[in-house]
Structures are given as C-alpha cells and as structure tokens.
C-alpha cells in the first residue's frame, strides 16, 4: 500500500444537471491504482470521464459512491482536504485561467502563501520552482508577455512550489503550439525523473507513448491499461474506441497489413527509424 499514491476503489461519479436535476454518470465503478513515482498517461475521447477522474484525485469533486484514496487519506475526510490538495497538484488546460498575478514570481508564490508558509521559505521555493521549469530568467515579467508554453511552465512552477508528491496534468498542452507542447513535455518528464508522480491526461498519442503506463477511458470506464508497447500493439482496438494511434504505430500497422514483418514494439518515430536503418 505504501507505494500506491492514488487509489480509486469502485469510484462512481454522477453530475446533477442544474436545469432538470437529471444525473449524468461520468465515472462508473472505476478502480485504478497509481504507483508512487510513476508516469501515467490517461487518454480517451471527449466526455469519457478523464477530467472528472482528475478532479476526484484532489478532492475538487467527491465520489458519488466508492472511494478515492490519496496516500492513506480518504478524500471524503474533510479534515484532510488541505493535506490532500497539497499532496496532489493540478495543472489545467488553459494557462491564462491559472495565472492570477501581474508578475511571474508573485504568481508562483500564490500557492505557498495560501499554505501559510514563512516568507523566506516561499522566496526559496519560488526561485527553485522557476529554475526547475527554466523560467527563472523571466521571473519579473508580466505573464501576458509570455508564450503559451512559458505561461504553462509558470503554472507548473506554481504547483511545484507547493511541493506536491503527485501532479495531475489535465490536457496541459492542448492550447499550445508544437514548440510549447515540447517544452511542457520536457518539464513533465524532468519532474517525474525527480520523483514526482505524474498523471498526464492528453489527446496527443505521441505524448501518451512517452509515459510508463497508458490508461484508456471510454464512457466512464477503464477500457485498456498497460505499458505504451502493450497498448499500442493493439491499434485496431484503439481505433474501435475512436482514438488515433501514434503516427509510427499507424505506419508500422499499415506495413504489417501489406505483409511486411514490422515488430510490434514500434511506438515512436525514433523506433521506426531505428528499425528501418537496422
Ligand atoms: P473528459 O475530460 O474525458 O472529456 P469529463 O470528465 O469532462 O470528460 O466528462 C465526463 C462526462 O460528464 C461527460 O458526459 C460530460 O458531459 C459530463 N460532465 C462533465 N462536467 C459536467 C458538469 N459540470 N455538469 C454536468 N455534466 C458534466
Ligand atoms: Mg477533460
């Protein structure tokens, strides 16, 4: 149990519609364990329940039934809510909605200030967090002067300044240009290598392929769960869920269907190039 940081046990979540009071089931009896220090990608088409799962992971939403554990804490335990939110940080899609101050470093200090941390310690954490995301040199700038990728990295710094054990990234690259997406992916991989458990919700299959584990959700259920090689070795099954596969997986699959014996463990463009040149 000690090496499991997040555990959803028969987690069911229903939204109640404001207008008519009708219930919308977003998660149906989901059980997932996330290992400490791991890097998990969650993919699935729109409305499959990914964001609802993310919000249950740090008690922004509470289960309709079943349980979400953060470490040994049950998210329904109101006395633990701040410990839970400190332990599991969140980064959302739109960096503009996450940046609240007019100066980058003030923004990063916002979270730790709310935790009631000493000013000298905050100073140190802010500098470290900005250094970690390669934004220290921009600390005095106004967030609106930054590129999308830079803004998202400031938002990530604001989260890591709270020293979370786990960060859930909910489509953090969806609004970024290709270079911004690469910048943010590099930071996520770096934070994971430093020991932070990372959960990345994404609709970019190339990003999912970089995780240790890929979970596919559909209709509020987990429908596939495995390593990227295990998952992307089943391209037809993934297409049946109306999802794409990484470009390299698609090419390898099409070659295989033409009778060429391409190994199943090709998931990245680099893998494909290596195989072609071998
Ligand atoms: P995803 O992040 O995979 O796109 P969500 O978790 O946002 O999926 O949504 C899952 C389901 O819950 C969808 O059917 C969606 O329409 C519904 N839903 C999400 N947010 C709300 C809400 N605030 N009120 C009512 N229904 C919602
Ligand atoms: Mg979502």
Description:
With 278 residues, this protein is an alpha/beta fold. The chain is 39% helix and 23% strand. The chain has helices spanning 50-57, 81-87, 95-98, 104-114, 119-132, 148-160, 178-193, 205-208, 228-232, 235-240, 247-257, 269-277, and strands at residues 4-16, 23-35, 39-43, 65-70, 73-74, 88-91, 166-170, 197-201, 213-218, 221-226. A six-stranded mixed β-sheet has the order 6-7-8-3-9-10, with helices on both faces. β7 (166-170), α7 (178-193) and β8 (197-201) form a beta-alpha-beta unit. The longest helix has 16 residues, at 178-193. The radius of gyration is 20 Å and the shape is globular. The mean pLDDT is 95. Magnesium ion (MG) is lined by residues 50-51.
Describe the secondary structure blueprint for this structure.
Blueprint: E1 4-16, E2 23-35, E3 39-43, H1 50-57, E4 65-70, E5 73-74, H2 81-87, E6 88-91, H3 95-98, H4 104-114, H5 119-132, H6 148-160, E7 166-170, H7 178-193, E8 197-201, H8 205-208, E9 213-218, E10 221-226, H9 228-232, H10 235-240, H11 247-257, H12 269-277
Parallel strand pairs: 3-8, 3-9, 6-7, 7-8
Antiparallel strand pairs: 1-2, 1-4, 4-5, 9-10
Helix pairs in contact: 4-5, 4-6, 5-6, 6-7, 11-12
The structure holds adenosine-5'-diphosphate (ADP) and magnesium ion.
The site of adenosine-5'-diphosphate (ADP) has 12 residues, from strand 2 and helix 1.
């Amino acid at each position: 149990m000690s090496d499991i940081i997040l555990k959803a046990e028969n987690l069911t979540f229903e939204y109640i519609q404001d207008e008519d009071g009708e219930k919308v089931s977003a998660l149906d009896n989901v059980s997932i364990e996330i290992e400490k220090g791991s890097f998990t990608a969650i993919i699935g088409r729109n409305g499959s329940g990914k964001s609802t799962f993310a919000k249950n992971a740090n008690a922004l939403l509470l289960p309709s039934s079943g349980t979400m554990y953060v470490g040994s804490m049950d998210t329904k335990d109101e006395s633990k809510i701040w410990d839970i939110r400190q332990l599991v940080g969140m980064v959302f899609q739109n960096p503009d909605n996450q940046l609240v101050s007019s100066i980058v470093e003030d923004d990063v200090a916002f979270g730790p200030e709310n935790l009631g941390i000493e000013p000298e310690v905050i100073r140190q954490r802010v500098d470290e967090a900005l250094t970690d995301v390669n934004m220290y040199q921009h600390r005095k700038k106004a967030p609106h002067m930054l590129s999308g990728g830079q803004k998202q990295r400031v938002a990530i710094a604001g989260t890591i300044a709270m020293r979370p054990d786990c960060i859930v990234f909910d489509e953090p690259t969806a609004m970024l240009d290709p270079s911004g997406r690469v910048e943010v992916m590099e930071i996520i991989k770096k934070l994971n290598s430093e020991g932070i458990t990372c959960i990345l919700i994404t609709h970019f299959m190339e990003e999912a392929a970089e995780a240790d584990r890929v979970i596919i959700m559909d209709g509020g259920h987990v429908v596939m769960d495995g390593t990227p090689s295990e998952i992307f070795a089943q391209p037809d099954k993934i297409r049946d869920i109306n999802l794409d596969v990484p470009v390299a997986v698609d090419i390898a699959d099409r070659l295989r269907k033409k009778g060429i014996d391409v190994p199943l463990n090709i998931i990245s463009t680099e893998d494909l190039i290596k195989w072609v040149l071998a």
